[in-house]
Amino acid sequence: MQSLLKSLVLCSFLQHATAQQQYREPAPAYIIAPDPTEYQDWLPPTSYSFSFGNKNDSVTPWKPWHHPRPPHYPRPPVCGVQNPSPQREFWLSTFKGAREGISPFLVDGHDYKVFRNVKDFGATGDGHTDDTDAFNRAITDQSRMGGGKGAGGSTGQPALIYIPPGTYVISSSVQLFIDTQVIGDTVNPPTIKASSQMRNNTVMIAGYDFGQPSTTNFYIGLRNVKLDTTGAASEDTIYALNWAVSQATNLVNVDFIMPVDSQHIGIEMDGGDSGGGSGLFMGDLNFEGGLIGILFNNQQYAIKNVKITNTRTGIAVKHAFSLTIQGIECENVGICVDMGPIDVAGSINLIDSSCERCGTVVNGTSSILLENISVRNSGPTLKVNGTARPIGDLTGKTYAQGNVYRDGTGRPSISSNGTAPIARNGTFLPYTNRGSLVGSDGRYFTKKLPQYEDYPVSAFASVRDAGAKGDGVTDDTAAINAALASNADCKITYFPHGVYLVTDTIYVPPGSRIVGEVWSTITASGEHFADENNPQPLIQVGKPGEVGLCEITDMLFTVADVLPGAILTEINMAGAKQGDVSLHNTHYRIGGAADSRTETACQTESDPCKAAFLVMHLKSTSSSYIENAWLWSADHDLDGDYNQQIGTGRGMLVEATQGTHLIGTGSEHHVMYGYQFNNAANVFAALLQVETPYFQPTPRAPAPWTPNPAWNDPDFSGCTGNVSQCYMQWALRIFGEKTHTLPLYGQGFWVFFNGPNYGACTGPDGVCQINIVDLEGLSKGDGVDLYGLNTKGVENMVTIGGSGGRVAATQAENAGSWGGVIAAYLF
Fold it and tell me: What's this model's pTM, rounded to 2 decimal places?
């Protein structure tokens, strides 16, 4: 906390105007220039340790590959579920399936309590009693500790903290840990309220687990609560939430209620010396009152659907490398988005938003993309270095501040008059071709996290009722497939926490709705997934040509062994309407945990194992909405100190054409590519985040794999001059003559190391990697638009035609961000 306090100068603000008056701007003196060297992706494993000291060694899902099956699979009850309607109580509060979670890799894990109601630990929710200790008891019960330091490492002691309706008064911090999901009642969201005893500089909810650096704060969640600071003194600095966290975390459906004209801050991101984290997504948030809504300090984020009212500053950016804000509504706010008085390294994309009675919509000097912003009764839409840009209302318009490439030739950027260089000057651009990606309001389509608050408890069926065990040993394939077949267009299938071992493909038919508990795990094992020449999906969503509904939330998909033929998820199905096929807060992990043999089998430096073929395949027949997904080949161990040399072949392969939305996704440490778009069309993305494998170029890509032409793999044959740093993963490949309508907002492509032992970068001029983005076989006018392209450690930001192709944009000519930044690259 002290590092944040030192970096803020919370002063010199003018008094709030009344709600009927236009805001006057606060002096933005609280922003301090970041030191980019402080932002490490994560510290080498020698700087901290995880401990799974109470591991159940009898659970070995990889031995043998032929697993005993349960004796029978009773079908779930006949449907009979009525249409959704308002409910008096949230199904989670009474559903028995939520009490069936186990932790199979923990000794006595069948007796471990995953589900924890705070009232069972003494919380009253009466609006008067101090419930601080009860909350912290619920979180720490059964010897749970911060930072993966408990008996079960980072994955062996999960906890779902359920908060019933009520007002819960707290007087000091409630501390969350890694692998904790806090869920308030969705029908009647509870209020967590600061008492008058809360002292200056206190955080109400400490989402940042202090036991690990912020960049390894994974698997933490908070949803369906109201955080109310109005009971604390307005003149004190009170933080409703510290959210200095990283990937696989979720902050959804939270209201921040603060006194108007106060020094209170809704969200801060202070991880001490480790920075603010490396997050992917937050959304559907409301802020009322306070000094600042979100004090942003993180590597990258997609922020979706945020309402900010009567606040001095909506989003104050202390630091951001890549930030995409979609659907922010500021009303009676001094500055809606404030990047500070000096150049903040990185880029911001603000799209599909509005300001009513704002002093300034955006204040800043860095790379900025503004698109489709309604401005009413407000001051300047954009201020740069204190000077207002005369751009006015941007409804149906696109404006860029920063370096822009418009012709695809790599020539110097040109302005709208066709001649003058625009380097770091603003310009209007052609309005983005959005195709079929918009909703009825003309904005990009979005969807809220399904929580089924309009369904009774009778609408849910536990997969355990179909015979699945989730014990990490039993083959649950038949039981899961039977449950999904029976529940389609009928029941919502609930997976109590556990490790569900399967030896064949899980087919998810149209009409399926799946809900996990603190990232319930389905893991692949056996010969079915072992042949890289005949790869098979672990999770198959529909079949080609099928149309219908499929919703998957709060799940984790992985492999139990080294399986070169495993595709973790394949989506074939299209929705009857936008968003019908959707995955939310569902993640992918290859290795790095006690539930997989890859943790111990893949340790040889310079020889990464082929643990999986492909993480996610969006096939040409599909349409999908994917929100908050981390596709991670583990670079370090979550449950111990084993070296992790894991060479997953491919990250996300997108061939979809019927409408795809990627909101807050990351694809890290895969050998050949992070994202590959092949003849894809009608794909919207808010944040694509990639890290190159730390072991590359030792061995050089594509090793250990042999490129497969049937999968359009890159072969790196164009690399010349024996420069090893050319033979490294593409963060993004886009090719195919049928490719069109790809508006992609916010890319963070990071390269940190060269070779084993986290070696220093040894490429030309000390770069880590030569090429990072590949565009091939595209025609002008195809609508391949990259907004806010950010890179670290690379020489060439954009290449046309592969590793031996023409260099279109270099990091040196686009200095900024964590190395290079381009406001817009329009092919």
Answer: 0.94
